[in-house]
Amino acid sequence: MIHSLSEWLLSNKIELLGAILGILYIVFSIRQNILTWPTGLLTSLLYIVVFFKSGVYAAMGLQVYYVFISIYGWYFWLKGKNTNNKSLLPVQLVNKRLWIKIGLISILIYSAILFILIKFSDSDVPYLDSLTTSLSIVATWMLAKKYIEHWIIWIFVDLVSTGLYIYKNLWPTVVLFIIYTIMAFLGYIEWKKDLKIKN
């Protein structure tokens, strides 16, 4: 039993480390701590390997995007300014016009990823992989801009992803995404308090 457990831990060490860092990432994100971004960057680098080995190609590509958006978010949270030229980027709401743009961009990204997965990969989960990936791209951009509604998108994405990773037998990642779902609820509540204070 102990031998089997240690063997499993050794063979899944990259996924386990990625899951641990992923939990830290979401904790930092809820607290609006700048460490969100370097932790997210490391998590993404590890999950590029995990998802490549598992054949979840859109999720793997998403991790590449996360590497770059982590650098962007890191810079934006450090240097971004609000309309009053204060140094801290405030939590903000998405207006109707931006929601329309976000919806259209999400559909375009979803369609492009789905086409690529169906035509050029052996993915057995192209629809769910494309859905979670396209919405994750948009939600991470919204996080970088500190739009509170990104938490709502994450709740949906995390729930769907949990089912996808159960199907793929990625159990540390399943646990991570269950935690992500719960923490996305908490993140929304915390950011909403901050939104009220600043308004």
Quick recap of the structure?
Helix content is 80%, strand content 0%. The chain is built from 8 helices and no strands.
Task: Provide keyphrases for this structure.
mainly alpha, 199 residues, 8 helices
Largest sheet: none
Spans of at least 5 consecutive residues with low confidence:
none
Count of DSSP H/I helices: 8
In round numbers, the mean pLDDT is 89
Helix-strand topology string? HHHHHHHH
Quick one: how many beta strands?
A: 0
* SSE class: mainly alpha
Quick one: overall form?
A: globular
Number of domains: 1
User: In which range does the helix fraction lie?
Assistant: over 70%
Strand-residue fraction?
Answer: under 5%
Report on this model:
By secondary structure, the protein is mostly helical. The chain has one domain. Helix content is 80%, strand content 0%. The protein has eight helices and no strands. Helix 6 packs antiparallel against helix 7 and helix 7 (150-167) packs antiparallel against helix 8 (171-198).
Secondary structure layout:
Blueprint (H helix, E strand, L loop, with lengths): L1 H10 L1 H18 L5 H19 L2 H23 L16 H25 L5 H19 L5 H18 L3 H28 L1
